[in-house]
Amino acid sequence: SGALRLVLADQLTHDLASLCDINMADDVVMLCEVQDEVTYVRHHKRKVAFLFSAMRHFAEELRRKGITVHYVTLDDSKNTGSFTSEVGRAITLFAPDRLILTEPGEYRVRAAMDEWRQVLDVDVEIRDDDRFLCTHDEFSIWAEGRKQLRMDFFYRDMRRRFDILMQGDTPIGDKWNYDADNRESPDLTQVVPAPYRCPPDDITKEVLTLVAARCADHFGSLEDFDFAVTRKGALEVLAKFIDERLPLFGKFQDAMIEDEPWMYHSHIGFYLNAGLLTPLEVIKAVEQEYHNGNAPLNAVEGFIRQILGWREFIRGIYWLKMPGYAALNYLEASRPLPALFWTGDTRMNCMRQSISQTARYAYAHHIQRLMVLGNFALLTGLDPVMVNEWYLVVYADAYEWVELPNVSGMVLFADGGYLASKPYAAGGAYINRMSNYCKNCVYKVTAKSGKEACPFNYLYWDFLARNREKLGNNARLGMMYRSLDKMADEKITQVKADALDFFADLDKGVV
Ligand code: FAD
Ligand code: DLZ
Ligand code: SF4
């Protein structure tokens, strides 16, 4: 008999470590849709539909290559509902001589796999996931002895190692980072190109029916499902991004426009994280656009930094710091997640826009996640466990390895500054500068206090005052604390009273 090779929903890559040496005559590849994974957090309907359809298409592609595939659908009457029990069942069915795996993206799944070595009556071989560009060992060597980790230094090393946008030993253009050029306010006269759309084929239609029935009470919408579900489709998304959006990606990277969820972003996170695209091919394709003169350096460098820098850095931290990282709560935040995160029922226009788009598309771009939703969660002191669960549920590109460090490290400062040098806290002026949301908001972004004022304005100072003991010594917040110290007593009393009123309204669900 041959090997049983398990492929998870986020491992849909034809040359995956556990598939590359397949013996077509004897081996079986297994994929399974299991209830435990659908509900350990109750994922957005669109996310489940995307993954199941992509898994089914991938299985078809393997079959077309002549590979034997054991595919278990969620509604298969024999489906036992978990990875462990389904792998056990496949072992009885096929009596393989070994089980070959690629290490999973999540610690939770890795822990289960490590147990399989004991409980399964077969040899278990877990291979490194070589789709990532920095191995766990390389990252821990880089991190060793550093009290705080800074993405910028990691990114420079990665640029050198992979020779991306380099001129010998120096970066092209002589600067490593062009973020200073990447903070323009939105230009409302520019028409944002229409996003890629892939109408459902028969496989996707069947999945949509299944998900509508089985996940009826999950968050989010399946309406007009149009994700790519194959590698071919994902390559089209990438090509469309490169042609139509990349040149302006840098300039408008942080900009937000009402009713415009897609902006100049790439929308490839879903596909990268599920394995339909690989990071290095994306980076090379985008670098080439610079060399061809089709896109400016600030756009190309800014985009490459997200994938070669941030994505690898975030993953490195996850594996270095788990399982402890998930429990960190440096600021001792404990407010339960308000219902408005699920309903979008709020008068704060920036929050309503970001949440309703998230419900509709299982997508929001980085600045909505960080500076609107994240900023709200940080300033109001929401419980990190609940905030993490929300982000893991609602985005179709979310897996714990990438969601957790972004939320606990970047947004909530729950790791005390290991990942980010300061909390990304901001008042309404930032959102007003980067968006047109405030024009249609009942709150006044220019008002600093009182019922009509933009809540971010006083929540910002209240946050700093409340967390002085934990943040007062942070060098990067020095200027803000000096401003707070200079604030008249009445003004501070007003800030605190406004914040208390806001929290009372938040509890009542009327902000
Ligand atoms: P683009 O803006 O076009 O960027 C290109 C690619 O760069 C992304 O597809 C992604 O692969 C990578 N990238 C960019 N920023 C980051 C980052 N901070 N960390 C890791 N990769 C990055 N990204 C996820 O893939 N999954 C998540 O669950 C996730 N959760 C997030 C939660 C919060 C609170 C924040 C602030 C960010 C989160 N991100 C997450 C990072 C980022 O917001 C998304 O990768 C991005 O919005 C996806 O859209 P896009 O493909 O259009 O990205
Ligand atoms: C997120 C998810 C969902 C909803 N369903 C499945 C599934 O049915 N089968 C599967 O193989 N993987 C699923 N996943 C992804 C896993 O929960 C997990 O996040 C990744 O495999 C990373 O370890
Ligand atoms: Fe958001 Fe404040 Fe602007 Fe309203 S005024 S959209 S709450 S930043």
From TrEMBL:
InterPro entries named among the record's database cross-references: Crypto/Photolyase_FAD-like_sf, PhrB-like, Rossmann-like_a/b/a_fold, UV-DNA_repair_photolyase
EC number(s) recorded for this UniProt protein: 4.1.99.3
Coiled-coil stretches: none
A single MF term (Gene Ontology): deoxyribodipyrimidine photo-lyase activity
Record key words, sorted: Lyase
Recorded superkingdom: Bacteria
Name by which UniProt lists this protein: Deoxyribodipyrimidine photolyase-related protein
Organism: Puniceispirillum marinum (strain IMCC1322)
